[in-house]
Each structure stands twice: as structure tokens, then as C-alpha cells.
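Standup notes
- DV: blocked on the single-chain target, sequence here:
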Amino acid sequence: MRDEDLIPLSALQHLAFCERQCALIHVEREWAENRLTAEGRTLHERVDEGYREYRRGLRQFSGVHVRNLRLGIYGQLDVVEVVKTAEEPDNASFLRLKGQWELHPVEFKRGKPKKHDADRVQVCAQALCLEEMTGSTIQSGSLFYGEIRRREQVDFEPSLRAKTEAMATRLRQIIVEQLLPGPVYKRHCRACSLIEVCQPRSQNGAKAQAYRKELLG
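- DV (later): unblocked, structure below
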């Protein structure tokens, strides 16, 4: 797949949260900011600038660009942590490191752990990018939540990997076919910055039914 055909990793998180939100942002090019998105943007300002830290044998790199050509996704990692494991073969030359390193992606989020898998899908997709780029197998990553100031470890089990790959396929379908799923009002709609654009309460009826019919073939 060509670089210009790749889709941003962040779109997978949007898709896992809500297909309509994803399509509004990445197909219709709609965007609106609220307090939650503003806080998230502020949290990412430092990591987006790019920095390196070395402490107690652990190295941290921010703002690292990654991609997975098989899945057609690309993005910039908040942080990738690396620990030296052996001398050969090289697996972190993209970080200008020699030897074998254990790679651990870390994604920063402003809130707290959620019941749905949107954040876990995003960090798993980051790992799939690193795996294709390095030939390594990455066992786990982390989500750092600003509200609780604590990490949550994410194990990249087969079920999460399969879900992430399936979502990457669905994401490409939505963008290539320029689909706009119908609105379905749910509890998490209240936190969405696009609620006024989407109008899920007022449009729940016929459009949502038509979209469900389309999905069922």
C-alpha cells in the first residue's frame, strides 16, 4: 500500500468509540472541540514535540512515526519505551539504536480507564505498526490516564489483535466508500464534541434503520 493511501491511527480509536463520529471526522471533515478534547490536546503537547529520556536502563522516545502497510495505517506514537535485551539482531534502527530491544508503546489519555475497547484498540494498532517495522513481537503496551495519573497495562492477546485488524478493515471500507453511518444515541454521546453536528437524538429513526439494513445486506 502506498504512503498516500494510509489512514491515521487515531481514526481507529474514533471508529471503536463510534462509527458515525469516525465518519464525520475522516469522511465529512467535521470537527468541534469541547473541554474534554481541549484537555486531551494539552496533555499531548509535550509528547508531540518529541523528546528522549534515559533512566535506569529504560529509554523513552516520543513523537515516533510508525506505519503498517498491510493494514494501511500510520501515526505518531506518544511514547515508545525500550529496554535492551541482547546484542543482535538489530530491531530498533528506526530509533538509531543497535542491538535487540524490547519495545513498549505508551498512549496518553486525559480521562480514566473505560469499559469499551477504543483506547486498547488504538495502542494495539501502534504495536502492530512496530511489529511490522521491526520484525519483533510486542507483548504489551500501556495507557496512561491523566485523570488518575496512573498506567493501565494492555496485553496484546489474540482477541484484541483480531478486533484491531477487523476494525482497520472496516475503517478502510468507510473511508474508501465514503460511508456515513446513521446516528444511534447512546450514553457516551454526551461526551462527544460532535454531538451538535451529529444530532443523534433528532435523527435516530429512519436513517439509523436504513444503515442497519445496509449492514445486514
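- Follow-up: Residues 210 and 216 are 10 Å apart (CA to CA).
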